[in-house]
Amino acid sequence: MRTVAYVINRLPQAKLGFISPHEKLRKIKPTVSHLKVFGCVCYVFVPDHLRSKFDKKAIRCIFVGYDDARKGWKCCDPTTGKCHTSRNVVFDEASSWWSPQKIKFSEPRDLEEVSEGNKECEAPAPDPSKERGGSTSKDKSPWKTGVHQFTSEELRPSQIEDDESVQEIRRSTRQRQHNPRYANTALVDESILIEPVNYEEAARSPRWKKAMEEEIEALNKNQTWDLVPKPKDVKSISCKWVYKVKTRPDNSIERYKAILVARGFSQQYGLDYEETFSPVAKIMTVRVLLALAANKSWKLWQMDVKNAFLHGELDKDIYMEQPRGFESKSHPEHVCKLKKALYGLKQAPRAWYGKIGEFLIQSGFTVAPSDSSLFVKENQGKLAIVLVYVDGLIITGDYYEEIERTRKNLSIRFHMKELGELKHFLGLEVEHMKEGIFFGQQKYAKDLLQGYGMLDCKPISTPMDPNIKLQIDEGKDLEDTTMYRQLVGSLIYLTLSRPDITYAVGVASRYMSNPKKPHLDAVRRILRYVKGTINFGILYKKVKEYQMIGYCNADYAGDHGTRRSTIGYIFSLGSRTISWCSKRQPTVSLSSTEAEYRSAASAAQDSTWLKQLMEDLHQPADYQIRLFCDNLSAIRLAENSVFYARTKHIEVHYHYIREKVLQGEIKLISTKTDEQVADIFTKSRRV
Predict the structure, then answer these.
(1) Is 586 inside any structural domain?
(2) Helix, strand, or coil here: 606?
(3) Which of 185, 136, 152 shows the shortest CA–CA distance to 30?
(4) Is 191 inside any structural domain?
(5) Residues 283-296 as b or e (16 or more Cβ within 10 Å = b)
(6) 383, 596, 607, 675: which has the fewest Cβ within 10 Å?
């Protein structure tokens, strides 16, 4: 009914002199270029941060109307029952949901272009509160409901290639008033390129067909399988095509990529696979390498392995159906007996790690016991270091002859892509400066703010209000908790280079199962803080004193719901942060001494691993680590192995700190509370 009223209000009425009720009320001719066929099939674009690498770029929905509070079309997904509001929608007005015909994807230019309107020519937006009877945009805010509606700012579709060059239009910076005469002008600002969801759609496009042919050619060149008759009593697994548009940093199209993926979910444990674990580089190892490179003036290189998983060898006989569209004409009933790993197989990551690890070990590298993804080669005090993260490699050190040899051998053995100096790694930014190496996530933080409509928010000086104590069951329920979980997950990734928000994000993550309105407000405050500190990160400099020191602290019974304490610690190498932690203790501490003692024990465990990592990198680590604590009772408890009745209940593993202190590996040093660096990991503090 709302959609009917919305359309009628914009149609000429004989009783009103053949003008619309909207024009009669507002004295402005309404725009009707955005009106669409009610109930038609539409495709809603999904932003990058709301989908994984291989997820669909659009959701097939039914058009159900227009949003009352903001510009955009309302689209409903009958398969999930969820409704989406978005400006970036492709409409197939000739088809209904129950029609067998789907929208065709023959070429990107065939897609309907969706206009968001020119800012100069756009007609003024109607006031929803006046036209609909009081439903304001404030009431519909996602920060009140928890329902995230796609906005034009967060939708960054890939640019469509065109043979004709487009001349850039220069615009005046002068503020201009909206002109009602151009209200009905339809302008195209963006084009949405939707990736095919199945083989039938891709086969209609020469570009995607060529991409599939290139993938099959690469698989055949790699000798990924043999075509054999299907053995009896053997169930072959199926496969599917996944399509991805590879874009450059400026969102222009780099290439069309078709990936053949095995349906690994149909594999049976013990028959098709056994071990699946594959190590990846720890973020702390990355920070330590950056700190070493900055202090020793090492160069950092980055390389990528193309089709990395295809190099892994299988230890099980796996039979797969022939790829769709590329079945053998002479033996269509045969199956593919896999000789190499394929994307989608459960053991594919492990097989690839085994292959790259075997190559590096044969080249004279050794695996670091502290991190299985770290490979080190030493010769007369010179080092060549390779850090592996799936198909991405970081190479550094001062053994330049070996580094150059390794890079060449890698390119010969595998199909490598040279990326030059390390600048971007897993969404992390590495900037080489005169002062040292800067490690941050500015672009990620900006995209995060833009994606949730907070790019123009008012900054705030602290990530968390110290006067507000969050509770589990206080506050109104959110209509949809998905937005909260997605946002907290994105902020957790931001903490990789932002220790200043670690405590606030950790507190917000405690309410993931059933978030309420106050919890969402707390997350919004974190975003406001990120807005004001968007350029924050870690700068690794060259320093004289290059030893590891740490700080540990605890907030006694800080969680008012469980009365558990929060521990926090931080370690720095050469006065620059390499490791930190903020975590709620698993049990209730009976005193502040006990809480601080547990925090020191957790810090001691991390320091032992960091010390082992330094030894693996052939760096000096035979010194006593200084660990600063602001609780004298906890220090005395760690230094004396006597029996205390009030601490007899403390679990055995927490006495690890006492052992390290008595062995002389760690020295606990008292520090003033106002000089406690780890305070930001246990309570809200201004950095």
Answers:
(1) yes
(2) helix
(3) 185
(4) no
(5) bbbbbbbbbbbbbe
(6) 675
Tokens standing for residue 22: 């909207």
For the chain, give me the number of helices (H) and strands (E)? 16, 25
Structure tokens given for 468: 């507000």
Maximal CA-CA distance, the chain: 97
Query: Do residues 275 and 420 both lie within one domain?
Result: yes
Residue 405 one-letter amino acid: R
Q: Are residues 417 and 480 in the same domain?
A: no
Are 401 and 422 members of one domain? Answer: yes
At 341, which amino acid appears? A
Helix spans in 334-477 (H): 348-362, 400-413, 442-451
How far is residue 308's CA from residue 218's CA, in Å, rounded to a whole number? Answer: 12
Is residue 320 included in any domain, yes or no? yes
Same domain, 486 and 579: no
Instruction: Give the whole-angstrom CA distance, residue 30 versus residue 126.
Output: 9
**Rounded Cα–Cα distance for residues 550 and 627 (Å):** 5
| CA 459 distance to own-chain centroid | 23
Nearest Cα residue to 324 out of 316, 314, 336: 336
Distance CA 633, CA 639 (A): 10
Task: Give the span between the Cα atoms of 34 and 143, in whole angstroms.
Answer: 27
Residue 254's pLDDT is 79
Average pLDDT over residues 353-363: 96
What mean pLDDT, rounded, does the chain reach?
84
The distance of Cα 537 from the centroid of its chain, to the nearest Å, equals: 17
Q: What is the pLDDT of residues 233-251, one digit of tens each?
A: 888 999 999 998 887 656 6
- Say yes or no: 267 and 395 in one domain: yes
Report how far residue 423's alpha carbon sits from residue 154's, in angstroms, rounded to the nearest whole number.
24
Pair 258, 380 in one domain: yes
Q: What is the CA radius of gyration of the chain?
A: 30
Its domain, for residue 635, covers 544-681
- Helix (H) / strand (E) containing 62: strand 58-66
277-315 pLDDT, tens digit per residue, is 999 999 999 999 999 999 999 999 999 998 899 899 998
Q: Which has the closest alpha carbon to 39: 10, 11, 61?
A: 61
Give how many domains the chain has, as a whole number. Answer: 4
Q: Find the angle CA(162)-CA(166)-CA(170) to the nearest 5 degrees.
A: 155
pLDDT category of residue 687 using cuts at 50, 70 and 90: low
> In the chain, what percentage of residues exceed pLDDT 70?
85
Tens-place pLDDT, residues 313-348:
998 899 999 999 999 999 999 999 999 999 999 999
- Polymer length in residues for the chain: 687
CB-based contacts of 679, cutoff 8 Å, min separation 6: 553, 568, 673, 685
CB of 415 within 8 A of CB of 423?
no
* H or E segment and range at residue 432: strand 428-432
Residue carrying the six token digits 């359309």 = 7
Residue with tokens 């870690």: 538
> Tokens in use for 176?
């201009």
Q: Which 3-state string (H, E, C) describes 366-397?
A: EEECCEEEEEEEEECCEEEEEEEECCEEEEEE
User: Residues 67, 74: contact at Cβ < 8 Å?
Assistant: yes
Pairwise CA distance, residues 497 & 493, whole Å: 9
Residues 636, 563, 519: CA angle, nearest 5 degrees: 130
